[in-house]
Specification:
Largest sheet: 5 strands, mixed
Number of strands: 9
Shape: elongated
Oligomer: single chain
Strand content: 5-15%
Structural class: alpha/beta
Distance between the termini: 78 Å
Helix content: 40-55%
Radius of gyration: 39 Å
């Protein structure tokens, strides 16, 4: 730490109790100066020779306004005044990073300028600051911290700006010129302590680009904001390094504050400052970090402008998020578990049509407008990743018993334009919703099932869906049909062979006891009965074993035959049949949310299997 000694005479200041300071000399004091609750018994001549302020105050006292001078507003209080008084007496006084700002502000208050006497205190302190303090990384940070308690004096004297500029200047130097002695929070290495016998005095370790980030974490948020703004203006340090520094500061100062009181006010200031310090370039901070900032912002009730800015930034790189990032708890008193509305806003930001070529205007230095062209993110890869993300998110929020079906459907529709090869993730989310909301109506069940494209379900998902008692019969039959089409295509057959039950239905046979004229949309939207599912399971078994294509017959019980007959009657209706198989019938929704193209749906089956009521117990196909 740098220091400067002033004066040559020994320190003769002594105390009489806690509140009286005097000079131990034979010459009687002729002036009493009260600074706060401390009285100083001093002499006029040495004080008046260097302080224009005291000259005026003593003159006012001589005019009959009292024998004692009262000073209550001097920056730095009694301690700073005593430093100035010792300088007037030419007594030895030591200035360092901890007291130099207070002494400088007090000297300004007392008017200790060169016009009063050459080589006065203000001049000497300014020389010390410029030649020593501002050239030291460690001392500059300490001095900047001390300016906080001396506002507005330290601000008006530009001590804050000079400190911030000195720190930013050192943080921006080339890494090859940085020595570890710059940092003072880092634990010393063994060789630096002299404990490494193999150390030859040469530093072999590479200095990281963000070597300065940890030290700045000790600054209060207002001071930190000035330093980072100064660093950004220089344009030397990359946005990625600044982003890492902002993350380090946030994690250090927001480890888990308690909501309420000063903690909330301080946290709000920190979050607001970090939001506006974020680099303009996309990807300089992780999406996960942005979500943590957003969750903190919601907790401390930050302003709407800063909140929208966070949502905009998250929307720019949403493809890098995880499902846990999206699970933002709803405010207290809300019916829902998670804040779905804010996720909707993020998705809207992601899907903005002008995202690919948006121009952002940034104001610099108060009057210059700079254009920053932002690269678009709506590539096919990013859309696919967001669709998968939404699928997983929907599966999580579907567990909320209070989640309206309309909200579920709206979120899924927001990524309906994301084309992907598999709808397994969306199927899992739909199945989870139906499981947790058994009371949904037939029309609602039909509406939610329209979200997925049955042709895009994997084999495992198809096998699970065919046995799923929660799905409408329409959906179950669709799944079975498309699974047979896929199986036939994989075997090289140009015309797929339908399973026996479906083939009979498609051939126009009217052997069912249920007339085609009695079929209604309500029948198709109803949940399949156990007997109907068993009949379909038999067809799936035949499909798996190849019996339905090679002439092998699968034995059916009377109940199975009756259920199959009922299904024949349903599918026999040409009108309904065309609606099922036609892509325009609405039984499938092209390219709606979510993709789990590489995921096996087997992992989802055990969870639901144990939760099915006993009367609709699922049986293994194999």
């Amino acid at each position: 730490m740098k220091f400067m000694k002033l004066g040559s005479k020994p320190d003769q200041f002594q105390s009489d109790g806690n509140n009286i300071r005097y000079i131990a000399t034979e010459l009687a004091s002729d002036v009493v100066i009260s600074v706060g609750d401390v009285k100083f018994d001093l002499h006029k001549f040495p004080l008046l020779s260097k302080s224009s302020k005291l000259q005026k105050l003593v003159a006012s006292t001589n005019e009959g306004n009292g024998d004692e001078i009262h000073i209550h507003d001097i920056p730095g209080g009694p301690t700073a005044f005593e430093i100035c008084a010792k300088f007037c007496y030419s007594m030895t006084v030591t200035l360092n990073a901890y007291n130099v700002v207070a002494a400088r502000c007090a000297a300004e208050y007392l008017g200790m300028h060169e016009t009063v006497e050459k080589g006065n205190l203000i001049y000497k302190i300014d020389v010390f600051l410029g030649s020593s303090i501002f050239r030291s990384w460690k001392d500059s940070i300490i001095v900047l911290q001390t300016t906080k308690s001396l506002l507005p004096w330290s601000e008006e004297l530009k001590l804050v700006s000079h400190c911030a500029d000195a720190i930013a200047s050192k943080a921006s130097v080339d890494v090859s010129k940085v020595d570890w002695s710059y940092t003072y929070n880092r634990k010393k290495l063994p060789e630096e302590n002299g404990n490494d016998p193999n150390w030859n005095g040469v530093r072999n370790r590479m200095v990281p680009k963000d070597w300065w980030a940890e030290d700045l974490c000790e600054l209060e948020v207002d001071l930190y904001k000035q330093v980072i703004s100064n660093i950004n203006k220089r344009g030397v340090i990359s946005g990625e390094v600044v982003g890492e520094a902002l993350k380090a500061y946030t994690l250090r100062n927001l480890p888990g504050f308690n909501k309420g009181g000063d903690d909330t006010l301080n946290a709000r200031s920190i979050v607001d400052a970090i939001v506006w310090l974020l680099p303009a370039e996309k990807g300089c901070v992780s999406c996960s970090f942005l979500f943590k900032l957003l969750k903190a912002a919601l907790l401390v009730d930050i302003g709407e402008v800063a909140k929208k800015e966070l949502i905009r930034r998250i929307g720019q790189q949403l493809e890098a998020a995880s499902a846990s990032d999206l699970l933002i708890r709803a405010p207290d008193g809300e019916a829902l578990i998670y804040d779905v509305e804010i996720v909707r806003n993020i998705l809207e930001e992601f899907t903005k049509p002008d995202q690919n070529s948006k121009i952002q205007l940034a104001e610099e230095d108060g009057n210059e407008i700079q254009e920053i062209r932002r690269p678009g993110i709506l590539t096919e890869a990013s859309k696919l990743m967001v669709a998968k993300l939404v699928d997983v998110y929907l599966a999580e929020i579907a567990k909320d018993p209070n989640l309206p079906l309309a909200t579920f459907v709206d979120l899924a529709d927001m990524v309906s334009g994301c084309s992907r090869p598999s709808h397994d993730g969306l199927y899992r989310a739909i199945d989870m919703y139906l499981k947790e909301h058994p009371g949904v109506s037939k029309s609602e069940r039909k509406r939610i099932c329209k979200l997925m494209d049955c042709k895009k379900l994997s084999v495992d998902a198809c096998m699970h869906a065919v046995q799923n008692e929660r799905l409408p019969l329409r959906t179950v039959v669709q799944v079975l049909f498309f699974e047979q089409v896929r199986a036939a295509a994989s075997s090289g057959s140009s015309t797929p062979d339908l399973p026996k039950g479906i083939k009979d239905l498609n051939s126009g046979s009217h052997g069912s006891s249920r007339s085609a004229t009695t079929n209604t949309e309500e029948d198709w939207d109803a949940v399949a009965t156990v007997e109907e599912l068993k009949a379909l399971k038999a067809e799936v078994a035949a499909l798996r074993l190849g019996g339905g294509r090679n002439g092998g017959e699968v034995r059916h019980s009377n109940a199975d035959k009756a259920a199959a007959g009922k299904m024949k009657g349903l599918i026999m209706s040409r009108k309904i049949f065309s609606k099922i198989w036609s892509g325009k019938a609405g039984g499938q929704s092209c390219d709606n949310s979510g993709s789990d193209s590489s995921e096996s749906h087997v992992s989802a089956i055990p969870e639901e299997a144990n939760s099915t009521p006993s009367r609709n117990r699922r049986r293994s196909v194999s």
